[in-house]
Amino acid sequence: MAVEVENMVDLADLSKEDLLALVDLALAYQDGQAVPTLKRAVSVANLFFENSTRTVTSFQMAEQRLGLQRFDVNVNGSSVKKGESLADTVKTVQAIGMDLAVIRHTQTGWYKDLVQDDRIQLSMVNAGDGAGVHPSQTLLDLMTIKKAFGHFQGIRVAIVGDLSHSRVAKSDAKIFKELGMELTFAGPKAWWSEDLAAYGSFKMVDELLPEVDVFMCLRVQLERMQAAGVATYTASDYHEAYGLTKERAKHLKDSAIIMHPAPVNRGVEIDSDLVESEHSRIFAQMQNGVYARMAILSRILEKRGLVEKKS
User: Fold this and answer.
1) Distance between CA atoms of 89 and 92, rounded to whole angstroms?
2) A GO molecular function for this record (predicted)?
3) Where do you find CATH 3.40.50.1370 in the chain?
């Protein structure tokens, strides 16, 4: 019997109903809902071609909690170093017996050709593609906002920082807008991305502070910048001009929350004292990430017919 291939490469591929159901499933897991029973042993390969702490470990934890057989592939010691393509690497782990592959790659849109390849029958999960999208991060961000406010409609979100290089900004903006949130953006004008113009306006950071319910800081991604941009950047200047300082934080609403996809550069995007303040949800986001990734993997397992039906 042919297996239905279910991938999770971009949340924008889901209907609004399916997206909200995924948020609810993640929250249910966090509240103690039992994981599904697997029909057989299920194997997953983690292929991280880009450095990661939160995403890789939370996927590993999610896989463990779901009872999956986990294989963490050391890509630095793999045949990729001998010139093997990503497509052939995926086909290799499929041939060895993997049902799923969780992939983070520096190439934006790495999955676009692979999902069209009928020879690839395992399910692929996008754990971040270059400056593209980051589906599981967006899902955990939705969880964080839902837990704080109980809904999405009309929530005002500011996304501040390195907008041109951030897959989180692009990934979140489209989905947030679809769910009824109102977005504004801030940061260095040179780092503004016109791709975001469809989702909200660009403002000065001090102008938007009193308006927002969510202040989301973005990491400055020097590794993705051209040499000229790196040469003119200093952490102290950035913090003073665009960072969430303690003085700026005083202008936020009492009910506002602070978010950051991490890793956090303390004293750059955000004052160190604010990282674990009462308004901060930064470490809560990380905790939510385990349940978000459990929900994503569960959806794939169900679509593939690998879980027992509820009686």
Assistant:
1) 5
2) aspartate carbamoyltransferase activity
3) 11-134+287-303, 135-280
